[in-house]
Amino acid sequence: LSPGAKMGCFTFIKVMMILFNLAIFLSGGTLLGVGIWVKVDGESFLNIFGALSSSILQVVNVSYLLIVIGAILLVIGFLGCYGAQKESKCLLMMFFSVVLIIFIAEVAAAVLALVFTGLAETLLTGLVTPLLKEKYGMDDTFTAIWNATMTEVHCCGLNNYTDFNNSYYYEVHDSYPTPCCDMQEPCNSTLAAKMAVEGCFKQILDEIRTNAGVAGGVAAGIGALEIAAMAVSMYLYCRLDEK
């Protein structure tokens, strides 16, 4: 290519890099703002978004998640946008490094999720089952979340109805939650064993496997965007040496 064509290509890629990362920066700022709002004024959030937010999502966890994701996107967007605008090799290399770390972490998480599904089930059983026994029926938010999950997914507990044996709920009501008996009452041990409603962990795994194509496509799209961002940042970084 002629020097003019190379310069035009460099300018075009630089502008695209700035616009792309500006969008990321603004998205991160929005998520960070929403996360702080949810953390500071959770009641207003619940009033606006209604029952879904209170029954399925735990506000504290959502706020922290939004704050972390928003902060990461802010950093990435700033490094990419400002680095391209100022043609800073240092900022471009930092952008490349941050995106690369995130990409490696995502790949590692995907591999671990595929390889250690059984281990994840064991760990979740050790952590979640005691909470079900202790908090289900006592903590309104926790109970609402599990009721919504079990009703929507058509499941019972994490593994099955035995997760509620010797639980607070069973001691108070002398029965299992109705989703464990396919919404039939009274949900005693005989009916629960007969209905054999599967645990939520298995049901969610089956749902993920059923939609593996969609999930894989989304993951591949995100990975492709990250690889493209790294390639563009490295292109700009290398081209700066030639200017």
Question: What do these coordinates show?
Answer:
Keywords: Disulfide bond, Glycoprotein, Lysosome, Membrane, Transmembrane, Transmembrane helix. Interacts with SLC19A2. Interacts with NTRK1/TRKA. By secondary structure, this protein is an all-alpha fold. 80% of the residues lie in helices and 0% in strands. It contains eleven helices and no strands. It has helices spanning 3-40, 42-49, 51-55, 59-86, 89-115, 117-135, 140-153, 168-173, 189-195, 200-210, 212-242. Helix 1 (3-40) packs across helix 11, helix 4 (59-86) packs antiparallel against helix 5 and helix 5 packs antiparallel against helix 11 (212-242). The longest helix has 38 residues, at 3-40. It is elongated. The model is unreliable at 50-56 (pLDDT under 50).
Features:
single chain; mainly alpha
Shape: elongated
Q: How many helices does DSSP assign?
A: 11
Low-confidence stretches: 50-56
- Distance N terminus to C terminus? 15 Å
Subunit structure: Interacts with SLC19A2. Interacts with NTRK1/TRKA.
GO cellular component, one term: lysosomal membrane
InterPro entries: Tetraspanin/Peripherin, Tetraspanin_animals, Tetraspanin_CS, Tetraspanin_EC2_sf
Keywords: Disulfide bond, Glycoprotein, Lysosome, Membrane, Transmembrane, Transmembrane helix
Question: What's the arrangement of secondary structure elements?
Answer:
Layout: H1 3-40, H2 42-49, H3 51-55, H4 59-86, H5 89-115, H6 117-135, H7 140-153, H8 168-173, H9 189-195, H10 200-210, H11 212-242
Helix pairs in contact: 1-2, 1-4, 1-11, 4-5, 5-11
